[in-house]
Amino acid sequence: MLRFLVRRVLLGVLVLFLVVTLVFALFYLYPSDVARTLAGRQATPETIALIQARLGLDQPIYVQYGRFLWGLLHGNLGYDYYHQVPVTTIIAAALPKTLSIALGASVIWLVLGVLNGVVSAVRPRSVADRTLTVFSLFFYSLPTFVLGLTLLYFLYFKLTLAGVTFFPPGGYVNLADDPGTWFRSLILPWLTLALVQAALYTRLTRGSLIDVLGEDYIRTARSKGLGEQRITYRHGLRSALTPIVTQFGIDLGVLVGGVVVTESVFGIDGLGFEAVRAINDQNSPVIIGVVIVAAAAVVVANIVVDLLYAVLDPRVRLN
Amino acid sequence: MSEETLRTTEADEGREAETVDREGRLGQAAATAPGTGDAPARIQGRSPWRLAWERLRRDKVAMVSLGFIVLIVVFALLAPVMALITGHGVNQQFNDVGLTPEGLPKPPTGQFWFGTDDLGRDIFVRCAYGARISILVGVVATGFTIVVGVVLGLIAGYFGKIADTIISRIIDVVLAFPFLLFAIALVSIVGASLTVTIVVIAMFSWASVARIVRGQVLSIREREYIEAARSLGSGSTRIMFVDALPNVLAPIIVYATLLIPSVIVTEATLSFLGLGVPAPTATWGNMISEAQAGGLYQIAPWFLGFPSLLLLLLTLAFNLLGDGVRDAFDPRGDRMNQR
């Protein structure tokens, strides 16, 4: 178990290191000429050179890389020249919003996906199963931004026209400021992100649970006289969950992407929104910062998921 | 034989799954232990490919999906013809007839079948041109992905040892990458274009293919026919591509069919975020993004609706076809529609 943990953490560190290096190399190879932009249009070459020296941009690449890594190790993600604030400030402001969307959506998609999958698997070919199958294929094929805009059109625009002003048009309210509005403003983003993914999990759970329910030990449990509920959830679902946990680990990267789209659709200025805006502004420090933070989040979450996997499935621990 | 089967199964849909299952199992049994009943004699002489195709042809959902995909491909190929018929160029702005006096988009009419967008352009013609991009990216990026994934997967699985270790680690790293964010970073530097979109998608998709191929090759590497090929003096390249590859092709084809829709959605997503194919090129993602700008879709739902619907239907069709292809190759797998 310990060896497993150490191996996972080492791989995680390697991935992070590669992400950081790649991102740094990308931006070094294609310099966006920060100094010239900062100096303004009438700057003399001397001024530009001075700014370059102040920012350390005249140093050789390995010195810049070393300083970049050193800064990272101290929690310094660089400076946003565009808005004149440290990148960490921008990320600290955006992170709670992104986490609110991502966590809420994951809970909805896991619960919805697994429960629907169980309903489908317990009675294959039933009306409920067929209906859920059609629905999940439909939502699985629905691009996130199409679903988001459709939800906005019907549940915000049409509903508001009809006199029901329940859903806000987008934007974000702090949880601490107004929990009610926070919740209402996040329902549509959550659904947008969750419904597409839930469809995949319904299909996964269904397939996995149908296989497990055909195993000998389930027959044994049944012959012992255990209730169907107990068999399905305690005996069946526990081992059926392992492929779902694996998939969840893989999907964390997808989740980050989905958050970018959802934030753009609903105008919530979280990490993804900041990243897209930073691109339009050619604001590389913020792009680098967001990519690194997101990569770190995915790596850490992946390790947690793998540990969870080992807890659920004893066979993993033995290897 | 296929004609007959087609008719009987259409008459009795309930038996369809059963027939397929039995044939699938017998098809395998025939390879190892021939002579169980009279069925093997009937099956002999049909390649697994033929069997899979015949199973697929009996899958009505898959065939309807395939028909729809062909329809969209024709729609895309005939895009210039659509422009000719309607008399509207793809980027032509009809400021007088294409917009209301207030300068807003017009709903679908006899003149503009899908309505107009915010610049008075014909959405129908733009949808046709957008289909070209979607299908082009879907096919080309998937093609690149498969080629790179297959070659690296074959090398890792066949040679093993150091090659396997290196390639497997790279696969792990690529799979752990937050794809969209890295795509954002890359596009922000090299600039958005069709080529960049395809390259970015392929760069991050090959790893899953390589992983599947590697696993398959690992399991067949020690088989007798590979050994036989080696003892006949075949080189590694020949063994990999001539002896091993055809035997791992089935999962690759299944994966490719399911990869196309996800690539199409990725392209549309990148375009929607302004990181894919740049405007004024008509792509479905671009159109949806333009419809979103300023909440325009609220007064002109057709502007959002038509490209969204096409995107949804094409993805759905590919996913349904992919399901059918998987069932055709592996009749014992998870059958969404028939189990």
Please outline what is shown here:
Chain A has 319 residues and is mainly α. Chain A contains 14 helices and two strands. Chain A has helices at residues 2-29, 34-39, 45-55, 61-73, 87-122, 127-140, 144-161, 179-213, 216-223, 228-240, 242-266, 271-280, 284-312, 314-318, and strands at residues 79-80, 85-86.
Using the alpha-carbon principal axes, give the shape of chain B. elongated
Radius of gyration of chain B: 24 Å
CATH architecture designation of chain B: Orthogonal Bundle
CATH homologous superfamily grouping of the largest domain in chain A: MetI-like
Provide the domain count of chain A: 2
In terms of quaternary structure, what is this?
Answer: heterodimer
- Return the average pLDDT of chain A rounded to an integer: 80
Largest interface: A-B, 60 and 46 residues
Q: What's the CATH H-level superfamily name of chain B?
A: MetI-like
**Major sheet attributes of chain B:** none
CATH top level of chain B? Answer: Mainly Alpha
Radius of gyration of chain A: 24 Å
- Could you tell me the number of beta strands of chain A? 2
Q: Pairing-aware structural class of the strands and helices of chain B?
A: mainly alpha
Low confidence ranges of chain A: none
Major beta sheet summary of chain A: 2 strands, antiparallel
Low-confidence stretches of chain B: 1-37, 333-339
Span between termini of chain A: 9 Å
Would you mind describing this structure in some detail?
Chain B: Residues 1-22 are annotated as: Disordered. The complex is a heterodimer of chains A (319) and B (339). In chain A, helix 1 (2-29) crosses helix 4 (61-73). With 319 residues, chain A is mostly helical. Chain A has two domains: 2-87, no CATH class; 88-318, MetI-like (MetI-like fold, Orthogonal Bundle). Chain A has a two-stranded antiparallel sheet. Chain A has helices at residues 2-29, 34-39, 45-55, 61-73, 87-122, 127-140, 144-161, 179-213, 216-223, 228-240, 242-266, 271-280, 284-312, 314-318, and strands spanning 79-80, 85-86. Helix content of chain A is 79%, strand content 1%. Chain B is mostly helical and 339 residues long. Helix content of chain B is 72%, strand content 0%. Chain B has 14 helices and no strands. Chain B has helices spanning 2-11, 16-32, 39-43, 48-58, 60-77, 79-86, 123-159, 161-176, 179-190, 194-220, 224-231, 236-272, 284-292, 301-329. In chain B, helix 5 (60-77) packs across helix 14, helix 7 runs parallel beside helix 10 and helix 12 runs antiparallel to helix 14. The radius of gyration of chain B is 24 Å and the shape is elongated. The two termini of chain B are 25 Å apart. Mean pLDDT of chain B is 77; it is low at 1-37 and 333-339. Classes of the chains: A mainly alpha (319), B mainly alpha (339). The interface between A and B is large, with 60 and 46 residues.
